[in-house]
């Protein structure tokens, strides 16, 4: 068995940004499209998104939310109804102004001046306004509430600096939109969605997150409250992995979403919106990847077990393929994480060692190699992607087990890998959150002097607003820091605000962020 190691050319510790891009290429996840800021998501990368989508969609539907679809093009006038909303997205909007092209007389094409639209159309950056129009039509009485909708779609936000999966001009997401009778019910939905995101991130993506409320300056444009889940990447930076917004009656007033209450009076609905996107795949890469490529948690792996027969273009190949197919069929009847196992028999011609390293870079959770000798002995060679190397001899940590024993333990093994990846990430995150910092200069010193990857700092603040908050934001910007959120499960504040010196109201997390 060949022991040649096909590691990445860049290590995380040396250049995390370059390593991230190399993992995307080496794992065959995505590539540049030739369209500025847009990417092509390749089959393995899209397969991961399909798994996230499937698991999230099950959670969404279990809460009684129904899927639907709304137009990609939104009249510009829709955005002008909600001033704060349009201000928040104005610089990112892609706008359609013409509906036809004509020849420019030079062999090219140009917009036909006679085909200018009466009203420009915005390419969907988010759908609160157009879904609000539909809600205004659908809701007439308290009996129509709550109205619970979700759509899976693409959105466009014209980004200046793009990075695949993390910040692209076009990306895929789901956006939930709900309408309720009162504040209490809307807030309950806001927190239900937040908890759904936390559970999906931690249980499906093995991504430990901290759920909490965003500060006033980080709220979604037009929201009364914004809540997020924040994940720590291996470079110590924070990634906002999902958000849930309580919108009050702001969008209901703008769109006219009203209902007749039980006493016959007209009331405005309280609405929410919540969403996650393909940014989650970036989070998986930066949380679980290593210097050999990607490691995909079994719950979201398009294929959980890869069987590689060691083919030699010889007559006995047929018998070996039959042996491997029997193993694949045997495994396909087993379950793990509540589903049937996803098993691929890799019949593509090529050297087994080269194919093994292809699957290592892609992050398949378990890789099996089977040669003629293994078949004769009724065995398989097993490699766990989360425990790739033998620490004693520096070689791949291959384990030889009987075919029947592996089939019997495969489900439990995948569940163990899922737990292992989560626990590894949780321990790393917890070890890199610094607490007990009480002076602003100590925060600055921490991020300047704690090495390349300083992690997060928890501090206490007085929850300032207005000009006082703007001063805090500018102070943070000067050292490239952001407030991530107020942890939902955090300890109560007991000291003074590190920014104002006033009695502290709550604890916040400060970090560099994507």
Description:
This protein is α+β, with helices and mostly antiparallel strands and 514 residues long. The chain folds into 3 domains: 16-77 and 125-288, BirA Bifunctional Protein, domain 2 (2-Layer Sandwich), CATH 3.30.930.10; 303-418, Rossmann fold; 433-511, 2-Layer Sandwich (Translation Initiation Factor IF3). 34% of the residues lie in helices and 26% in strands. The chain has 14 helices and 28 strands. Helix 2 crosses helix 6. The longest helix is centred in the last third of the chain and has 29 residues, at 403-431. The chain is globular, with a radius of gyration of 26 Å. Residues 45-297 form the Aminoacyl-transfer RNA synthetases class-II family profile domain.
Task: Provide the number of structural domains.
Answer: 3
Largest sheet: 8 strands, mixed
- CA-based shape: globular
User: Mind telling me the C-alpha Rg?
Assistant: 26 Å
> Could you say which structural class the secondary elements and strand pairing correspond to?
alpha+beta
Through-space gap between termini: 41 Å
User: Under CATH, the topology of the largest domain is which?
Assistant: BirA Bifunctional Protein, domain 2
Mean pLDDT metric: 95
The CATH superfamily name of the largest domain is: Bira Bifunctional Protein, Domain 2
What is the number of E strands? 28
What topology, given as strand order, has the largest sheet?
3-9-10-16-13-12-11-27
Tell me the number of helical segments per DSSP (H or I, 4 or more residues long): 14
Helix content: 25-40%
The name of the CATH architecture of the largest domain is 2-Layer Sandwich
Strand content: 25-35%
Q: Briefly, what CATH class of the largest domain?
A: Alpha Beta
> Low-confidence parts lasting 5 or more residues at pLDDT below 50?
none
């Amino acid at each position: 068995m060949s022991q040649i190691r096909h590691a990445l050319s860049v290590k995380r510790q040396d250049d995390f940004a370059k390593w991230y891009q190399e993992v995307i290429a080496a794992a065959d996840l995505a590539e540049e499209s030739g369209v500025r800021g847009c990417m092509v998501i390749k089959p393995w990368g899209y397969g991961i998104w399909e798994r996230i989508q499937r698991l999230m969609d099950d959670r969404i539907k279990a809460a009684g939310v129904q899927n639907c679809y709304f137009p990609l093009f939104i009249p510009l006038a829709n955005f002008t109804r909600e001033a704060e909303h349009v201000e928040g997205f104005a610089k990112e909007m892609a706008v359609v102004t013409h509906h036809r092209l004509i020849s420019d007389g030079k062999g090219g094409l140009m917009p036909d001046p006679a085909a200018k639209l009466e009203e420009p159309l915005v390419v969907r950056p988010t759908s609160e306004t157009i879904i609000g129009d539909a809600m205004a039509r659908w809701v007439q009485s308290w009996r129509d509430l709550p109205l619970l909708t979700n759509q899976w779609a693409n959105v466009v936000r014209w980004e200046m600096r793009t990075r695949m999966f993390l910040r692209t001009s076009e990306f895929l997401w789901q956006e939930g939109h709900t309408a309720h009778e009162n504040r209490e019910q809307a807030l309950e939905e806001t927190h239900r969605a937040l908890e759904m995101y936390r559970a999906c991130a931690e249980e499906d993506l093995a991504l430990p997150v901290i759920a909490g409320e965003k500060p006033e300056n980080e709220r979604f444009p037009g929201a009364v409250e914004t809540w997020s889940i924040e994940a720590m990447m291996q470079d110590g930076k924070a990634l906002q992995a999902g958000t849930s917004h309580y919108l009050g009656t702001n969008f209901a007033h703008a769109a006219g979403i009203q209902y007749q209450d039980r006493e016959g009076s007209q009331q405005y609905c309280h609405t929410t919106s919540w969403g996650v996107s393909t940014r989650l795949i970036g989070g998986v890469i930066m949380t679980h990847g290593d210097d050999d490529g990607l490691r995909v948690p079994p719950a979201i792996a398009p294929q959980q077990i890869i069987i590689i027969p060691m083919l030699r273009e010889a007559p006995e190949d047929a018998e070996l393929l039959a042996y491997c197919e029997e193993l694949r069929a045997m495994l396909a009847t087993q379950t793990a994480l509540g589903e049937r196992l996803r098993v691929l028999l890799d019949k593509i011609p090529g050297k087994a060692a080269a194919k093994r390293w292809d699957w290592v870079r892609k992050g398949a959770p378990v890789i099996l190699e089977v040669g003629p000798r293994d078949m004769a002995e009724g065995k398989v060679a097993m490699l766990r992607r989360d425990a790739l190397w033998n620490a004693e001899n520096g070689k791949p940590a291959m384990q030889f087990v009987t075919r029947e024993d592996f089939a019997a333990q495969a489900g439990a093994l995948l569940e163990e890998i899922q737990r292992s990846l989560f626990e590894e990430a949780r321990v790393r995150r917890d070890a890199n959150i610094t607490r007990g910092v009480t002076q602003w200069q100590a925060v600055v010193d921490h991020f300047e002097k704690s090495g390349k990857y300083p992690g997060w700092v928890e501090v206490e603040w007085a929850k300032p607003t207005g000009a006082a908050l703007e001063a805090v934001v500018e102070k943070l910007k000067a050292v490239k820091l952001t407030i991530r959120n107020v942890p939902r499960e955090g300890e109560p504040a007991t000291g003074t605000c590190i920014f104002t010196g006033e009695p502290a109201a709550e604890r916040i997390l400060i970090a560099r962020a994507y």
